[in-house]
Amino acid sequence: MPDLGKYAEAVLSSYAVSLVLLLILVGLSWRRSMRIKKALQDIEKRQKKNG
Amino acid sequence: MSSIWVYANPKKFIDTTDRFLPWVSVLAVVCLVIGLIWGFFFTPDDYRQGSTVKIIYLHVPSALMAINAWLMMLVASLIWIVRRHHVSALAARAAAPVGVVMTLIALATGAIWGQPMWGTWWAWDPRLTSFLILFLFYLGYIALWEAIEDDDTAADLTSILCLVGSVFALLSRYAVNFWNQGLHQGASLSLDKEENVADVFYHPLLFSIAGFVFLFIALVFLRTQTEIRARRMRALIVRDRMKD
User: Fold this and answer.
1) Which residue has the higher pLDDT, B196 or B68?
2) If I label B50, which of B24, B102, B155, B188 is the partner at 20 to 30 A Cα–Cα?
């Protein structure tokens, strides 16, 4: 760990805030993608079965 | 050679982006890991700003992407207005939440960086203010998409909003040059060697910027695919209801 001196709080909180926001964005995008993909597959399957 | 407009076909777009998505995602992770680890652990403190210079690896790339995401949305919106390709409107819609997060990161890291350097979290400085307005435009753009039920009407109105907001996207980029005042320093990246950030910070910064660019592309691919599927799903549900 580098010595961040008196600015440690500012540097570490910048990294924490940014990485958390990026992880939330990636996580939500991925989860919605999976959810919609599955829902569409279910609808298409159901419609095929019903003709 | 096939035309670029073949990607306006939703199926072709999904098939093509599916092939590239894993590679772009890996590139994003690799560049971000190299840029951030190199910048955080292996670069010296700046003689004026001390260790706060390490915030540059997040602040500059996120600010760049905040502006460029809006410009990408502008191009996609113009394609929608001129050629009425649904994929382009959906790509603009997909990019907005990514852009809003980039803007939020730029604003947050800027405030955290500004506090020890300027003695204040916020100042009504031209660049900061134009960035805040850009953030509000992003929120308005997303809200407008959500508020209108008909996809084509929503695409029309959000495209107009995007055109108007582009003024602030450009202002955010050039505010420092237009108004030579305020607390914010000049651009960190410049073709002028004297003005450009020192090489020791510049090389890891390039990796970090590349990481943010690839992350943006990967997220836009993934989210556009999702928007295309969601649109198809809504169409199938409506068709189902009409049969009943």
Assistant:
1) B68
2) B102
